Amino acid sequence: MVREEGQETVDQKKLLDDSLHQVKLEAAEMRHCLEKSLLLDALKHASQMLAELRTSALTPKYYYHLYMEITHELQRLELALIDEFQKGNRRPDLYEIVQYASNIIPRLYLLITVGIAFIKLHEASRRDILRDLVEMCCGVQHPLRGLFLRHYLLQCTQNLLPKSVNEEHVRLGTHFEKKTEDGTVHDSVDFILANFGEMNKLWVRMQHQGQSRDRERRERERRELQILVGTNLVRLSQLDNISIDYYKKCILPKILVQVVSCKDPIAQEYLMECVIQVFSDEFHVRSLDVFLKTCADMHQRVNIKNVLTALIDRLISSYGMTEEGREIQENYGLFELLSEQIASIVQSRSEMLSEDIVQLQVSMINFALSCYRTRYQFVDKVFATTYTILQGAIVPKTAYNCPLGKELGKLFRIPIEVYNDVLTLLKLENYGLALSMLDHRGRIKIASCIVMNMLDERTEVNTVEATEKLLALLSVLLTDQVDQPRDYEKSDEFVEEQTLVSRMVHLLRSDDPHNFFNKGGRCRLMYTYVPLIFKAFVLSREYYNNRDEDVAWEEKAKAIFQFIHQTICSLLNETESASLPFRLFLQSALVIDTIPIENREMLAYEFLSQAFAVYEEEISDSRAQLAAIILITGTLQKTSCFSEENHEPLRTQCLLSAGKLFKKPDQCRAVISCAHLFWSGQIAGQSDRMRQSKRVVECLKKGLKIASQCVDPYVQVQLFIEVLNHYICFSEDGCPDITRDMINELIAKVSEALARLEMSSDVEQIQKHFNNTVEHLKVKKAETESTAATIASLSQAEI
């Protein structure tokens, strides 16, 4: 196939070269005769030169090269004729003489050339010559030769067409001009339309030439020639003194008749796009109804989407957000007209691809957002129309990655990106309805896009109504769906989506958010409830901060903590993980401790007791148990709302639970951490910490005893060092029952235990830990001695 095309190119070039050689010979003879003022001989050679355009062997591409070379020579002929006439060598019969040429192609090219010269010299009526030329060209019915002949006519008359509105105006001139009937701009319109109609017929006729197997090549050649036909419309658009009314009633209908009557998809699509591009914006606005009605009558194979999209894009670029544009849009109801007519056109085309329909709606929504930014009902109407047109065709849901799904995704993302405000998006009542046409993955993508926009723009939803609308729109992220894949909640995508939702919760405000999130299924609760609870913490703090302005703040705060308790219990019952509810119970107790509401102690005690219950009933892993005990002791250490009556059983329970841990190392670490409760804990109503040094020492001794019971010597030494560090910590904090002898005794015990261990990487780490502890003691001792010496010197100076 490639070889055949290559050979064809070689053959075409050879044919072109042969023709150009002959053209150059005849052109040289023509110029020679013109130099001698032998007009008739020059016309004879010009006719022989033009005979080369009679060929049918050249393709449009190579025929065009030949045409350009010959018409360049014809321009010289025209200038020479004008020059001869101006010198006085006038031949008024020349226009008739050239009509005796034996072949029609040379005859008509010469007739046009001489006719143009006569118009420029005012030798005859411009109107009559133009009318005669356009009619005479009908003699060439071969599509390729006829198209180039008429294109030559159009080129030559480009700057010679009548432009005045009234005929009597053009009859006035200098004394050198003859008072002939030159015509008006209406004659120019008739001339161009007549030429356009004939050229369109020739162009369409090309599809019927040759064999059926060459159809693809013929279509390609036709597309190469389409600009010749379209140039007529360009010339029409360049005419002056054309009123909008005249365009709408006379010019456009005649163009559209030609477009519809040709019944050729290629011609119809190209010519409609030409009309859109070449005529002025105001013409389009005033004649939009006529244009759109014609679109409905075009061939079914015409890609009407391209035509309508080009029209809408033209309107957007011309009448975007300008004052003039807004006035025109309102006065002429462009959106309503476009929407109604496009819906009618789509319904009349049963074979139109669904993705093409959606692309049209994408153009419509861009038009609405560009020209009617604040008219939300127009954008909403696009989604309503899209749903109405497609709902019968979409069963089952549209896959997100198919052509239709991609176009729908583009449609749904446009208002998100343009408005950049979720609150505005919520005004589109049909957005969610149209979104339901996508499959589960598609709805997830769009919903995630909405949430990401909220997070990026920090858009807060502050009303219950807006929150309810938003959560309904994002239901695919919040609740299990009928069409979601099996085991979807185990996927990485699910985790990412729920993380987004959890971040979004901080931007919401609703009287009953629990109503939305508790429908999400057990897998979603652990993601959505946590930010909801922390949002409730913030709200309770806001109530407290505004206590001077709201007398009912305590009741509201209590209601918040009741909601938190209910939510954590729900999370505990619905999820498999006990760690999260456990931590939330502790965090709630800490928050309650900072807000002095009535019965604060009772509420905090309830949350801590629930945490103990979760620890005892749900947490069985030894590592998790140790972490839980340390968290409980840390929480209790930070609270200050408990009386001795309630604080004592809580700290005692911590110590008991620590002693019941399964592994000895865990027991040791948990018990020594409980020592902080007796030293740093605080009872309600007391300004000082507990400072129960005897209980602190008891805890540390118990921890040391448990460490001594460990069989593994490496673990035992490590535990000894940890207990030693606690002794030092409490000693430095002023615990009176911890003596230097206790610390020295424990240091000796660690040194002795380390000496018994064989050297290894683990032992090196333990030794390093111990050395750091000893070094710390030395530094502290040096600081103490320095301080004592300073005090002594000051005392001596005073003496």
UniProtKB/TrEMBL annotation:
It is a peripheral membrane protein. Gene3D superfamilies: Vacuolar protein sorting-associated protein 35, helical subcomplex Vps35-C (1.25.40.660). One of its GO terms (biological process) is retrograde transport, endosome to Golgi. Keywords: Membrane, Protein transport, Transport. GO terms for cellular component: cytosol; late endosome; retromer, cargo-selective complex. It is found in: Membrane. InterPro entries: Vps35, Vps35_C. It holds the Pfam family Vps35. Plays a role in vesicular protein sorting. Belongs to the VPS35 family. This is Vacuolar protein sorting-associated protein 35. It comes from Trichuris trichiura (Whipworm). The lineage of its organism: Eukaryota, Metazoa, Ecdysozoa, Nematoda, Enoplea.
